[in-house]
Amino acid sequence: MTTTNRLPTYFISHGGGPWPWMKAEMGDTYAKLEAALADMPRQIGRRPRAILMVSAHWERPAFTVQANPRPPMVYDYGGFPLHTYSVRYDAPGDPALAERVHGLLAAAGLPAALDAERGYDHGMFSPMRAIYPDADVPVVQLSLRRGLDPAEHLALGRALAPLRDEDVLIVGSGLSYHNLRAFGPQAAAPSKAFDDWLNRTVVDADAAARERGLLAWEDAPAARIAHPREEHLLPLMVAVGAAGDEPGVRIYHEDDFVGGLAVSSYRFGEAAGGR
Q1: What is the DSSP letter of 46?
Q2: Which residues pair with 142 in a beta bridge?
Q3: Going by C-beta distance under 8 Å and a sequence separation of 6 or more, which residues neighbour residue 214?
């Protein structure tokens, strides 16, 4: 299946744990992020056939594709209220799409595997609750590869690019800042320094410079403060790789998230429904 309207790709900051189910506890902490995620269907302009989501919360020795037709929930968090360990987001899987993804990766010479048991982790179900609250769009998750090589994940995105013409939305789900030991006011300066660099790199630079910058991301200001371990940044590489030379735009930004963090999300490619 092809369409004349190529879908954009996204890198989203997915928030912490099961936040959509904790509004009583957290108030309006996530109001801006939720609004930005909820606006994605308008930007896209139509409901995609399926979503391929690369989550920061799944790493395997090979790029592994979720092939479960009815994925269960994976409550991969700790210390949250008891009720958050029974929340549901029952979107269907798509084994045919999983096979297609596996084939694209194999054709590109990338190590690939299928997993018929894997469920949905909170890098998927928390943002998806805001994007498609009715859980009526099939979702297939794709793992990161252990070693977290930026070049490999850019190559992964390039291999997945044909899906954009097959009505499949590619979403990298991570966080633009992820240092659980440095939140709040102490993180204001380093998170802003890294976020400013990130925005210059993925929005202001041309495609070639964008890839060069991301390959050398450790040289960015406060890089290892923002990402002591880079699993929450690598989904961005996939979205950028799949975008090719199409421009990026920031679709979400806060300078004072949870009391001090600068955080952002990005779209690559045109939006049928407008900015």
Answers
A1: S
A2: 54, 65
A3: 150, 154, 201, 202, 236, 237, 240
Q: What is the pTM of this model?
A: 0.96
In this prediction, residue 2 has a pLDDT band, given cuts at 50, 70 and 90, of: very low
| Cβ atoms of 91 and 120 closer than 8 Å | yes
Under DSSP, the state recorded for 70 is S
What's residue 165's pLDDT? Answer: 97
Cα–Cα dist 171/204, whole Å: 21
Which amino acid, 157? G
- Can you point out the beta strands (E) in the chain? 9-13, 50-60, 63-66, 112-115, 139-145, 168-174, 248-257, 261-268
Q: Are 128 and 135 spatial neighbours (Cβ–Cβ below 8 Å)?
A: yes
**pLDDT tens by residue, 171-191:** 999 999 999 777 878 899 999
Please work out, in degrees rounded to the nearest 5, the angle formed at the alpha carbon of residue 151 by the alpha carbons of 117 and 263.
Answer: 80
Is there a contact between 67 and 94 (Cβ–Cβ < 8 Å)?
A: no
Burial 187-197 (b: 16+ CB within 10 A, else e): beebbbbbbeb
The answer, yes or no, to whether residue 3 has pLDDT greater than 80, is no
pLDDT of residue 1: 41
- CA distance linking residue 59 with residue 55, whole number of Å: 9
